[in-house]
Amino acid sequence: MTHPFRLPPASRPERRAAITSSHHVIAARIVPFALSCLALASTGGVGHAQVLTGQGPHTFTLDTFVSNVPTIGGAITGVGPIGVAFRTDGKVLVTDAAGDILFYPNHSNGQTAPCTCGLPTVPNRGTSNAVCLAMIQQGTDWKYYLTEDVAGRIEEIDEDGQDVRLIVNLPGALCLIPYPPAVVNAHHGHLFATAEGTSDIFEIDPSATPTISTLMTVGAGPDGIAFSEDGSILYAACTSEFVVKGYDVSTGALVWTSPMVNSPPTRPDGIAIGLGSLSGYLYANYNNDNSGQMHGTVWEFGLPGPHLGDNHVIVDSGSRGDFIAVDPNVWSGGAFPSLLFTQSDRIMRLDPPGGGWVGPPTQSTEGVLCTTCFARYCEPGIGGMQGCPCSNPAVGPGRGCNNFGALTGGAALDGSGTPSLNSDHVSLSVRDENASALTVFWTGTGLVAPPGFALAAGVRCVSGIHRLYTGSASGGAITRPGPGDPSVSARSAAVGVPISPGQTRYYFTVYRDPQASIPCGNPTSTANVSNAVGVMWTP
Q1: Looking at the structure, do residues 322 and 437 belong to the same domain, yes or no?
Q2: How many domains does the chain have?
Q3: Most CB within 10 Å of its CB: which of 32, 72, 256, 412?
Q4: Each residue's pLDDT tens digit, 485-507
Q5: 415: closest CA among 373, 446, 452?
């Protein structure tokens, strides 16, 4: 990721002269929980339309995710969205050029305005030069972090937007990313940043007394940075060399260099590592050439391994390219991540085959990732689970196998509420079943190791099961507990599986799918199964 207003280095000597090597750290207390991957890309002027090239191994679709982002009040008139970040509850946050933090629902295309989403818009916190946005989760609360290029600092902002605190001075601060939260080592919980006028990568330790140090020195003009999934390789867009480079985190050794692309060669800006179905690839958004001409292309590079050298331009005809990012829900099991990148007044979305996904984690053993969500399990064909038994695959993650009555793409079960034995507000909701299907909600005490096993037209992976609730769907949806029903914890005790603090319980539904018997080749196969969800209960 990088500053979206970046011009050719030779055109801004006045900016570089203002950059110093001072990195004074202001003491502040930060609890270093896992950060959501920050996101973004920027391309061109209002009305600009990029096009898919159709090249490469992935058949992407291109849609407008968010439009009508304000383009006034910032450092450069006509440029609106800058930073984008994904919360682990699926909401998308956007900083605009005026320094506001805007909230959008999690995965619907065609949004035209920010929503409250139960959260306030945080106004004018970037002092008109907000660049990157990152987050730290504290229980169910959040801290937001902004890099400010012109002001040369990184600030912490409470979720309500009322408490703004300077964390560290970093002149020319550009990109800010977390170390992969599922990887636990000496870098766990730290932030990493680039800055103008230096080839250093900075590591920020957000402890009670924050510190900043140099992780390594990379190629000339680093801007966008990204880590491999296991945190062992750091990739940097070396804008002054027109390439992306990969470095071993432990030794600093150069391990990979992308080719120069476009004619004349243009500068890589924002970069993102492919995850899930995009694993093994790096995505780079390209900006200007030496003359200052903007190109706005997106490239897909095969990294060392089976895809090495499989390089393609996947989006063309843009007028400017800055940030790009992959939805990090795949850190916790999702398989079809979306890429988001921004134009002057909008955010565009690239979806890979499988439908794309912007949303909560789908399957996580990393507790921090799922503090505010119910982890999803038993997704057919994902994470080692077997495919659907009757040639009826789900249309995407977070679902069971497709049904034969409504052909909805598969029943999707979600959990919400507080899993507290003293204050149980847990609700289980399933959608996209057959319209009025008889439905049974089940609870279980464990998981069957992948690949799970077939159950009628679906796949099951939960063991130690007991029936919780029964009812009929309306419009393919049903929620339990309903009016007059005992709570989930009370009902669990009533059916003989009381819950103790610290225990994880799993939930799924089985519903009628009578038309499945013929394609399944079994007259008794008249049911289907949702995905499963799980949550750890507290006192």
Answers
A1: no
A2: 2
A3: 412
A4: 999 999 999 999 999 988 889 99
A5: 373
Cβ atoms 284, 270 nearer than 8 A = yes
Q: Which of 442, 435, 334 is nearest to 394 (CA)?
A: 334
How far, in Å, are 8, 41, 222, 319 from residue 293 at the CA level?
9, 18, 20, 8
Mean pLDDT, the chain, whole residue set: 77
pLDDT of amino acid 21? 31
What would the pLDDT profile of 356-391 be if each residue is shown by its tens digit?
Answer: 555 544 443 333 333 445 777 888 988 788 999 999
Query: Distance of alpha carbon 407 from its chain centroid, rounded?
Result: 28
Residue 106 resides in a domain: yes
277 shares its domain with 419 = no
CB 67 within 8 A of CB 111: yes
Phi-psi region of 447 (alpha: psi -120 to 50; beta: other; left: phi over 0): beta
Across the beta sheet with 427-431, the strand order is 412-416, 427-431, 478-480
Residue 254: count other Cβ atoms within 10 Å of its Cβ.
Answer: 12
DSSP string across 325-341: EE-GGGGGT-S---EEE
Please state the φ and ψ torsions of residue 500, each to the nearest 5 degrees: -110, 150
Element at 490 (helix H, strand E): helix 488-494
**103-162-208-194 Cα dihedral, nearest 10 degrees:** 50
Q: Are 300 and 311 in contact (CB under 8 A)?
A: yes
159 and 301 belong to one structural domain: yes
pTM, two decimals, is 0.62
Q: State whether the Cα torsion 500-506-512-514 is positive or negative.
A: negative
pLDDT digits (tens, 9 = 90+) for 163-194: 677 789 999 888 888 888 667 789 987 889 99
How many angstroms separate the CA atoms of 302 and 308, rounded?
4
Q: Which residues contact 325 (CB under 8 A, 6 or more apart)?
A: 1, 37, 38, 39, 40, 41, 84, 86, 270, 272, 339, 340, 341
Query: How many angstroms separate the CA atoms of 402 and 398, rounded?
Result: 12
The answer on 244 and 332 residing in a single domain is yes
How far apart CA 409 and CA 402 sit, in angstroms, is 4
Q: For residues 443-453, b (16+ Cβ closer than 10 Å) or e, as one string?
A: bbbebbeeebe
pLDDT tens, residue by residue, 98-146: 666 777 765 678 887 676 544 444 444 444 456 777 776 555 556 777 8
Q: Are residues 383 and 500 in the same domain?
A: yes
* 283 and 432 inside one domain: no
Is 32 within a domain? yes
Write out the residue range of the structural domain in which residue 413 sits: 374-536
Encoding tokens for residue 491?
Answer: 């009902």
